[in-house]
Amino acid sequence: MLFKGKNKFIFIGVIILLVIYIFAAAVPMRKDIYLMPKWSSPMPKVQTGQMYSGEAGVSADELKQRFTGKTPIPFSLGNLFGYFTEDGEILRAETAEERFSASFYAWTKYPQKPLFTDIYKPEEFDLEKPFLRIDKPGYVYLDKDRIFLFEPEGSSISEYDNAGKKLWHYTHTFPITAFQSSKAGCVIGHSDGLLVCLDSEGNILFSFYPGGSTYQAIMGAAISEDGKQVLCLCGLDKQRVVLINISGRQHKIVYHSYFEEDLRRQAFASFDKFGHFAVFESAEGIGIIDCRNLTLSILKEEGFIAGLGFQDKNALLTVLLQKDDECSLLLIDPPDLMMGKTKFKSENAFLIQKENKIYIGTDEKITALDIRGL
Description:
mainly beta; four-stranded antiparallel β-sheet; 2 helices; 32 strands; Quino_amine_DH_bsu
C-alpha cells in the first residue's frame, strides 16, 4: 500500500516520533536505588553509669589497644554513646546520667552543673587520663575536632584548641537558641531574634535581626562547610526561612519564604557538603532549599529529623525521622523526588552516612547498609 499526499507526511512523522521515543525510553532518568544489608551488631545493654568495652577483666591499656589501626565511628542513642568500626565491632559504649558529647576526635560527659570538664580521646578508658581539661564552668560541645564551651547563663560561647587555649569568646544578652559550626566558622541564633555569623577566628562577619515576623526568635540555623552560606528558621506568627550568602564581611538575603504555621521548638537545619542544598524542619514538613536555583520544596512528612546524610557524588539525601517510637528512613533525590521510604520501631535511633554506606542504630542493634544502584 502506498502513502500519498498528506498521509505520506503523517506516516513519516509517526516513524520519526517512534524512533525518538525508542531511543529516549532506553535512557533511564534515574537508576533503581535499593539498600543492601552488610552486617548487624547487637546494641550492648549497659546499665546507668556503666560501660561496655567488649572484654571483661582487662586493663585500660589493653582496652586501648583495641582501637589500634581502626577508625572509630562515634554514635549517640538516647543516653548511650560510644564508638564502633565500619565492619561492625563495637569498641565501647557507655551511658551518661546527665550530659555528654562525642565526636570522632574526643568524648566527654559531665553533671548538670559542671565546674570543669575533662575531655578524653576515643580510645582512653582510664578516667584519670584526660587529654584536656576545660577548667571553667559550662557545657562542652564537641563538633568533629572543634571544642566549644557554652557558659552556664546560656548566652555566651567560647572555642578552645586541643591544648586548652581559648581561641575566642562571644556573648550576647539573650539566650542562644540555635548553633552550628563548620571549618569556616559558626552561626549563632538568639531568643530575641539576633542572628550572628563568626569566622573560624571568632571575628563577626554579620550580626542582624532577620525580622519579618510578629515576634522575633531564631528557631534553627545552619552554616555551609565553606562558610559562604547561612540558613535560619526565624520568627513566630509569620515564621519564615531565610537563606543568606556571605562574601567577605558582606552578606545578602538571597531567598526567603513564609509559612502558614509556626514550628514552636528548636529546629534542625543543615547544608550538604558542597552547599548545594539546605535541609530544615518546619511545621509543614521537611524543607529543602536548592541553593543554586533558589527554590523551596516541602516534603509532607511528620517527625523530628534524627539523622541526615548525603551521598555527595550522586546528590542522594538520606533522612531519618522519628515520631514517638516510629522511625522513617527516607531516600530523596533532592530537592523533592522521593526514591524510597521504610519504617521501623525504636524509642531511639541514629543515622550516619559515609558516601555509599549508611549505619542505622536502634535500641536493639546497629546495621550497616550499602546504597546500590547509584
